[in-house]
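request received
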Amino acid sequence: MSGGRRQETNEMKTLFDKIWDAHVVSEVENGPTQLYIDRHFCHEVTSPQAFNGLRARGLKVFRPEKTTLTADHNTPTVDQDQPVKDPVSKNQLDTFARNAAEFNLPLFYPLGHVKNGVVHIIGPENGFTHPGATIVCGDSHTSTHGAFGAIAFGIGTSEVEMVLATQCILQSRPKTMRITFNGKLNEGVTAKDLALYMISKLTTGGATGYFVEYAGEAIRNLSMEERMTVCNLSIEMGARGGMIAPDQTTFDYVKGREFAPKGEEWEKSLAYWKTLKSDEGAKFDKEIVFDAADIQPMITYGTNPGMGMGITDSIPTLDEVDEAGRISFQKSMEYMGFQPGEKLEGKQIDYVFLGSCTNGRIEDFRIFAKFVKGKKKADHVVAWLVPGSWMVEKQIREEGLLDILTEAGFALRQPGCSACLAMNDDKVPAGKYAVSTSNRNFEGRQGPGARTILAGPLVAAAAAVTGRITDPRN
Amino acid sequence: MEKFITLTSTVVPLPIENVDTDQIIPARFLKATNKDGFGDNLFADWRYNKDGSPKTDFILNNPTYRGSILVAGKNFGSGSSREHAAWAIDGYGFKVIVSSFFADIFRGNALNNGVLPVIVSPEFLAEVFACVQANPTSTLTVDLLNQTVTNNVTGKSETFEINAYKKECLLNGLDDIDYLLSKKEQIEQYEGEKNN
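response:
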């Protein structure tokens, strides 16, 4: 797809500017921009009220082929071939199916469909996600798709209704920030560690109001899947979204996927995609630079993703916390059952969760399987290994990873968001500690009273084997 | 959407920072297919014990504090994009949230539901918390037309930002869909140009 209304000026533009400007339909006087949306992803939890809205206004879906629908948030991860037991969940899933049928939406992937899975995993793997596109979904981790050099961000249900009705939304133009990671990542440090490190430095609200471009050698060296992990977590520092300029890694990933451009259209798209990078000298509203070599395997100790530290570090003491933030800090320590100043390495844990739109891709399972190969899961640990999609599940089987995992005492569940937000039965019990590869350690996120320690797939694998918070490099 | 013009009310103070949308409305309450009833589960895990009885130490269960203005610590509404958080706040009866900082998506969702997020300075916020602690009948006045928020105890007033378009929407009770539907022709024109 070509860029449409690109403004030909001599002005140096950021990657974000180029894509945004190509999608402006109109500017509202003294107000937001009317932005055209190329791809809308939709799931069962944040869409029913939007369809109700369409019905109430007597509207159709404007461009049915531009919406991709999958059930993922409120789905069981066992017995997916059986009727869903929870009647309230079943009603939501049935409503989703009825809406897709009533509004004639052709790209509908319900529970059990071969293309079903976590929305931010099935989008890229089926080739719906393209460089230069504007992508939205009623889900804050839509930022994941920015890994392809797209403007991708989460929206509310009112905005889902706007996109269904008009393929547009109204958005104020965010500020731009570039975060550069110079140098190379150390051995045993994953993309998740890079992201948790960055969020711990910026804090959970540190990028609010900004759209972030990630750059630098350490970013360029990441695989497509690792880039998705980094962009996925942009929202955890408040950013509107995160993006990485497309390059050969991106093009190689997209090429040949089912909904990727083909033939002449591919060549035309590729030529445009190659122009998608920030011009030399383009101005960002904020620039931050990190040295990738400073990053260690990370864990979180508190109740927001900004409360992270190197796995061998200690929790801050009360004196090290800003006065205005002390009530919240103490509240989080009480919730987690930790003491300020405490080290967490060696601490016993109860649950391990591998999965989610952050770390539920095939590479995450490869990392996990490679570590646990020839070892055994700790007896006291409950491990939930949840592939992000049926396609990932198939790869796990085909690559022989399932045999390795089974041998080490692990079992695979069926695809879905699962314990990341615990809408289904995959809830960590109150007071239990879960080392989780997901994206949020908020109070109650993984079940009422559950205590979440966010980490990458490697730290999760080490914890699953030892039953303790363990530095995977040892 | 209901119109919003001006409001004077006592306030409910929540001096906690980074209140995320999982606290505002936990994920297990997102199984509904309409917008009703979320107010009953606003802050559910802070508000109720496991058996459903109210936690007496939580502010919403303290009859001393009532009002249609919620005053919260900085970075209110971080995390998930769930609009259910705005429906829960609206459903409970809050019309205004005052904080020194809001997360982006939540702020947009609130505005799309006629709930006004008012950004004040950290000093103003701290003073409101102090006034309410000293006297729970302290009130704030929020005037959308003039974009001012006034602490009626100290008389101090601040102006707050809101884009002119959103302000008109709130003052007139209009929403974005009405606007976008009026732009159908331009959308089709854009699509035509893009495909050439």
